[in-house]
Amino acid sequence: MNATRAAAEQVAASSASPDGHEVVIRAEHLVKRFGGNRVLDGIDLVIRRGEVVSLMGSSGGGKTTLLRCVNLLEEPTEGVVEVDGEVVSKDGHSLHRARRVQLRQRVGMVFQSFNLFQHLTAAENVALPLLRVARADRDEAVARSVELLARVGLADKALELPARLSGGQQQRVAIARALALRPVALLFDEPTSALDPESSQEVLKVMRELSTQGMTMLIATHEVGFALDVSDRIVFMDRGRIVHAGPPREVVFGSASERAREFFAGFVRQGSQAG
Hints:
By secondary structure, the chain is of the alpha/beta class. The protein has one domain (2-274): P-loop containing nucleotide triphosphate hydrolases (Rossmann fold, 3-Layer(aba) Sandwich), CATH 3.40.50.300. The chain is built from 10 helices and 11 strands. The longest helix is centred in the last third of the chain and has 17 residues, at 258-274.
């Protein structure tokens, strides 16, 4: 913990990138091991305020682990993680429990499996972090939850239990819940992987709207078309490393990496046939 604090001023002093945009998330030489398995192998990544960055690559490449290390759901083994100007982990020393709760107020996360409480209504699920974490007044929390459900197109579902909602609707409730504490960034872990195509489009529409509103987002996804349309950058990962990062069309259609070309080949062929 002392090492973390000692590094805070040094890293915070570099919290603006060379182009002047404020850095919201920074990973430097990030390593994560599970036993002898090196799942993240020296990740360097900067996310600036208002950016949408898509993490892409085959399953097992390290995308989910990277997201979980940023949010301290997993303990990084080596390297530095900085969030909103504060070092939250350095060389295996991370924030204590109370400060982790505060971190998760600033960086929301949307999971594959929704993680809604089945005995609570949509509005109650969204209000829960406001009541338990922010200690908000109940009336204030309810009003905020209704506002957020309207923002994701679910104003008429506030009193429904999750079991009465489609998968896409449940995921939109999860997004509303992640927005409840007004985070500086949102992390998405394959948010459409458990959904049918129609429900996926409902969720992707909400995410597109968030991007136009300036929300900083780091998204692990296999939705190539969405990543091309919405991302400022695509980061292609393989075996725990960043193989190629850059403008979306460059990564998808012109990557110098053979592994990236193999991954995107099917999409490129479909685009050529459609053209």
